Structure to design on (363 residues):
């Protein structure tokens, strides 16, 4: 019974997703993203543009109407005139609509980039026939996500309707007085009210979209959770097969050994046990504060170090306790400890004397 309970808890998805799991999910297009953010920001940017550039847009439309009634109506109806008229009207309309399209495009890009960053997902273009499965569709209708989406829709309708109603209600006096105004003043009042309603409604949708984004992020993290067993399996998978892992480590050791052997010819002396240990020492009193262990080895590796030293005419000195102490207490690339300065210094002085050269004596 206890074993069953442990297996049950091990299978529960209680752990946060690993970076590798997040990376795989992102490749499949699974990200924390709310479509409400894109639509709300696009709507807000569009009304903001109309608030700033609406006057120039109206002037552009009036210019097209003015040319149409004052100039184009006087043209003869011919194929060439019709072609010219079509091109001119198309060009004027494109110049008017291009800024709006640019704002909408920029808003969509900003909204998506703010949520998921830069991402190109070809997998999202693949046809998924499971989405047109009627049984799966019925499950989706009665799922928790459908309930949440229904509540979101109700909230959007209620909030935006309330905002629009309050704005129109506050302007009711001016709206009732439209009949006494000329067409330009009436258009100004309606246009101003239209922009106010649009900005307020889109602003409220942005607030709802932000809340929905955090909900989507919560759901995304929840669905991405892993069990302890899944984390262990992923770790094993990333580590690879034990045999391959062993071969990789053996290759790394071999490469490290080759690099160490390449340093032996640079040694000043090799201190030996004489057969079990060999430690290669290098010292330059002008650039080094203390002698440096550049290679060391035991048994076969010790014999290899001594062979390389012999081939490169590097002196080998037998000192059993010192060789054993250096092998066990100093790693490759480290300087010898202070308590061994005197012993190593005597050996270096002896080597320099035998070779007829002077590199400085250690005190």
């Amino acid at each position: 019974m206890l074993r069953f309970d442990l297996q049950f808890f091990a299978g529960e998805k209680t752990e946060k997703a690993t970076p590798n799991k997040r990376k795989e999910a992102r490749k499949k297009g699974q990200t924390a993203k709310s479509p409400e953010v894109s639509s709300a920001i696009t709507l807000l940017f569009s009304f903001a543009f109309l608030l700033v550039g609406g006057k120039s847009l109206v002037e552009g439309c009036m210019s097209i109407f003015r040319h149409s009634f004052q100039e184009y109506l006087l043209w003869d109806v011919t194929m060439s005139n019709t072609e010219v008229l079509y091109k001119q009207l198309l060009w004027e309309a494109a110049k008017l609509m291009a800024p709006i399209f640019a704002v909408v495009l920029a808003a969509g890009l900003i909204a998506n980039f703010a949520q998921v960053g830069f991402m190109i997902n070809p997998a999202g273009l693949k046809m998924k026939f499971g989405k047109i499965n009627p049984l799966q569709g019925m499950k989706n209708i009665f799922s928790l996500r459908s309930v949440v989406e229904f509540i979101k829709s109700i909230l959007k309708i209620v909030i935006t309707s309330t905002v629009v109603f309050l704005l129109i209600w506050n302007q009711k006096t001016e709206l009732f007085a439209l009949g006494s105004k000329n067409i330009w003043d009436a258009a100004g009042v309606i246009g101003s009210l239209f922009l106010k309603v649009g900005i307020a409604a889109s602003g409220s949708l942005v607030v709802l979209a932000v809340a929905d984004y955090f909900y989507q992020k919560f759901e995304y993290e929840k669905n991405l959770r892993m069990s302890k067993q899944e984390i262990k399996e992923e770790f094993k998978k990333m580590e690879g097969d034990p045999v391959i892992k062993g071969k990789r480590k053996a290759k790394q050791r071999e490469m490290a050994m080759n690099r160490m052997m390449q340093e032996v010819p640079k040694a000043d002396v090799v201190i030996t046990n004489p057969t079990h240990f060999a430690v290669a020492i290098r010292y330059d009193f002008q650039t080094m504060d203390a002698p440096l262990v550049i290679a060391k080895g035991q048994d076969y590796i010790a014999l290899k170090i001594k062979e390389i030293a012999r081939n490169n005419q590097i002196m080998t000195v037998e000192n059993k306790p010192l060789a054993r102490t250096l092998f066990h207490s100093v790693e490759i690339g480290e300087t010898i400890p202070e308590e061994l300065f005197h012993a190593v210094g005597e050996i270096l002085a002896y080597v320099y004397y035998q070779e007829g050269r002077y590199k400085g004596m250690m005190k």
Observations:
- The chain has a mean pLDDT of 79.
- The radius of gyration is 41 Å.
- The longest strand covers residues 292-298.
- Residues 90 and 331 are 80 Å apart (CA to CA).
